[in-house]
Write a structure and sequence with these properties.
- It is a single chain.
- By secondary structure, this protein is mainly α.
- The chain has one domain: Acyl-CoA Binding Protein.
- Helix content is 59%, strand content 0%.
- It is built from five helices and no strands.
- Helix 1 crosses helix 5 and helix 2 packs across helix 4.
- It is globular, with a radius of gyration of 13 Å.
- The protein starts with a helix and ends in a 7-residue tail after the last helix.
- GO terms for molecular function: actin binding.
- It is a peripheral membrane protein.
- Keywords: Cell membrane, Membrane.
- It is found in: Cell membrane.
Length: 109
């Protein structure tokens, strides 16, 4: 798949997950969010990615946010832990990992 096609497909699947058109368990949603963050920001860098760096990004389905009574900082912390694990991963690889996980979700396809 060409990069642009893959990126557009990623954005479409991500939107479907965020809108709950594709059901995604909370733990998986956090992992997917971390791959989305890696694809957007690259490697985590504490000098650049200060607390609140994810505030403007919609990364989790509303249902997940409502089910688990965590504040924005706590959600960001959980996503950041995974984001740090993806150090060295290329943007294209992060997108591919996101799509691999998404294809195993129940309502996918």
């Amino acid at each position: 798949i060409q990069d642009i096609t893959q990126r557009l497909f990623f954005l479409q699947v991500k939107e479907a997950i965020l809108n709950d058109d594709i059901y995604c368990p909370p733990e998986t949603a956090v992992l997917l969010a971390s791959y989305a963050v890696q694809s957007k920001y690259g490697d985590f860098n504490k000098e650049v990615h200060k607390p609140g760096y994810l505030t403007t990004d919609k990364l989790l389905p509303q249902r997940v946010l409502e089910q688990h009574k965590l504040n924005k900082d706590q959600w960001e912390e959980r996503i950041q832990v995974w984001h740090e694990e993806h150090r060295g991963m290329l943007r294209e690889d992060a997108i591919l990992e996101y799509l691999k996980i998404a294809q195993d979700l129940e309502m996918y396809g």
